[in-house]
Amino acid sequence: MPVHDELPLTEQSTPTDAQTLLHPSPHADRLAESHVPKGLNSAVITGTGFYMPEKVLTNADLEKMVDTSDEWIIERTGIKERRIARPEQAASDLALEAARRALNDAHTRPSELDLILVATVTGDMLFPSTACLLQDRLGAPKVGAMDVSAGCTGFIYALDTARQHIATGAARTVLVVGVEVLSRITDWTDRGTCVLLGDGSGAAVVKQSEHKHVGIVAGVLGADGSRGVDLYMPGGGSRHPATEETLRKRMHYLKMNGNAIFKVAVRSMAQTVTQLLDKIGAKPEDIKLLIPHQANLRIIEAVAKQLHFSMDRVFVNIQKYANTSSATTIIALDEARKTGLIGPGDLTMLVAFGAGLTWGGVAIRW
Ligand code: UT7
Description:
By secondary structure, this protein is α/β, with parallel strands linked by helices. It has helices spanning 9-12, 17-22, 59-63, 70-77, 91-105, 130-138, 154-168, 191-194, 244-248, 258-280, 297-306, 318-321, 328-338, and strands at residues 42-51, 55-58, 81-84, 115-119, 144-148, 173-181, 199-209, 215-223, 231-232, 255-256, 287-292, 347-354, 358-365. It has two domains: 42-209, Thiolase/Chalcone synthase (Peroxisomal Thiolase, Chain A, domain 1); 215-365, Peroxisomal Thiolase, Chain A, domain 1. Helix 6 links the parallel strand 4 (115-119) and strand 5. It starts with 8 loop residues before the first helix and ends with a strand. Mean pLDDT is 91; it is low at 1-34. Bound molecules: oxa(dethia)-CoA.
């Protein structure tokens, strides 16, 4: 597998047109009172929720399945346990639970939705999209519904897409879900990956708001497709449709070059935070809470170190749920909100990295 040492992130993480419109000058005065130019709308998260399957798989359980140890997993990853969906549960089932909780939290009825976005790489099936299945299960109107595939950065890609739809007036109320049933694409004989992954779902309701000083104030998205083979599932698509051979070669499982990804994860997430700060004219000390993708505690600590952040301003829940890919950041955001770590006026950032390779972040003023 190719190993690239340098990622020209600054060149590749160019803002989209609407992002530029929202933030015309990256050197604007710090935290200007209104971040939304005339004619564009503010996008505010009004509710969040998450759902975890009940079944807990501990490190001790994994010791009985592969050649690993509780000590190795905790020391190298920070993970103690993860959740596993019931056999009959698919992505749309997990998504439905999280979506209902987020809608309740936002005091919003499904009938008010006018766009549904689901970030996932483990949808119920290749098509129809899990977003369409969710629309039906929620009894939502026949509005646009689509899946977003950006690996672990999926929720951030979807959230920024929601922001753009709201900014331009194309949508007023958007449901954004991050959901994974990674246990279905985990090779339970590969100790290099199976100890890292878990199932779960999270959701957010994003609404158009009159309050222009709050909301999702900036977004950064980036990708480097040349690194796709560092984290991928080779079988099951049009390149390698399912055959006896693809099954024999275990091509329907997630493959990862963990060492190579580690370095890119740290660099891309740290650079994304710096780019977001630059876009909104803020300083690192203005961030109340950084909510990073939960892939490995050592990655999170390295990002914090690069940014000169103390860990008490960085949210971590990887010990309970492991890496749930596109669901981690929204699950973490919901936990942070519900435990009172985020209050009115606070600036938070979600930042992630994943298959693609992709990376991205959003800055949120509450
Ligand atoms: O969600 C986004 C995508 N994923 C990531 O961002 C993950 C990024 N990568 C990582 O988190 C880390 O690279 C891993 C956790 C995957 C691996 O940690 P590491 O410290 O980079 O370990 P390593 O791959 O360098 O392996 C060290 C040793 C090896 O043994 P030898 O060659 O030194 O004898 C591995 O075979 O640890 C061994 N090893 C294990 N030992 C016990 C690998 N996996 C395990 C295991 N239990 N589960």
